[in-house]
Amino acid sequence: MSKRVDIIGELLEKHPDAFFVFANGLTSREASYFYPQDRCFYLLHGMGETLSIGIGFARAKPNIEVVVVDGDGNALMGLASWTLMPVENVHYYILSNGVHETTGGQVLPSFPFVPGWCNIIKMDTGQEGTPNPPSPSTIMANCQNWLNNNADG
Amino acid sequence: MRLDEKNRELFDLKASSDIFVQELERTSDWVGCVPDSVFKKVLPKLRHWHLAPRENHLIGMAFGAILAGQRPAVLIQNSGIGQCLDALLGTFCLYNQGLLLVISNRGILPWEEIQHQDWGGITESLLSISKIKFISFDDEGIDGLNRAAKMAFENNEVVALTIQRGNLDE
To answer: Which of A137, A147, A151 sits opposite B96 (nearest CB)?
Structure first.
């Protein structure tokens, strides 16, 4: 298994032209600190909505590849959004350590099923020391800047 | 007030579903809904709309649409506020983005089913304490829809339009 920060780096390399949506919590914290990029939207709250945001974006921009990076706790909270998948231009990854790590390591229930479009990546528990993520206005402005230069996808 | 075919009181008709759809599509270029019977004549007349399984995911999808540069409107029943308040606060409110939130205000009329009445009693209070501005379609009609959309997209804020039973043809 790997660390969260390494998996995030690998996904960014694997999808060099994609727009990314990162789940709130440690996923956004580590992504925004170690790999700050305008093509990344960092959720700061809205538990369970990472995939639905990615889907809303992807439907509006069908020519842009969209990568959604969720945590397993977040994904379980948003299971009803799975009914909106698959979407052709959405890649969905769940970083899974089996616990709610941000809130103290409470053990998660299992996923009741795993569809073919859902990519679960096992990872170690543990987190990197990070400062707070950028402010909401900074995140929005950076994404807008990227979109202005990639409007046609 | 007016009476329906079953002799039940309804609020006054403020706009036909045709006019409502026309203005909704003029002011917003992305429409989503968790269906409610108040919108049953509206939905088939929309050129396109997005269905979500729950209101929180509808808000998430609408937020994705605004990231992509669209002006979203969502149609929900008032009980759906209970499902989506965290999503609203954690996306549109936190990131200062505009949303037209059209809410059917069920549970106001005395004949409405008991399961709607609690929500009828708290909807406007809940919007107020959530710091979500709201405009009454019953008071302002189509002008209210246009004013709510203008506020939402010019000021980058969530603005609700509350619709009473009878305000639209059902």
So the answer is: A137
